[in-house]
Model the fold of this input.
Amino acid sequence: MISNRPMEHQDSSQSRLDELFLAYRQACPDLEPTPNYMPELWAKIEAREVSTNWFGRVAKALVTAALAASVILGMMVSSANRPNAFFNATFVEALQANQMAGLDPLHVDRMAELGQQ
Done:
């Protein structure tokens, strides 16, 4: 690629870039490799994630609550739409069920009286 800039400008830019790299190298020296380098690095990363990850936890909790509410509401709607045997029975079956509910299971003589009526 051919540049239209004068050579002096490129040399000054190059020297400024070299100075910048030198200042960066002095500010951030090379670390000595130690056996604890990776565990310390992961501890720093996890510490940052914990402090900035509260929004994600709140969002997950809200999604879980919404899912639970939708499951509960779905179960309520499906149980409300289930046909009831009492309403689907014939009139005679409803009367018979009502009469049987009124019987006292301990009085056999009363059952005989109702059978005679």
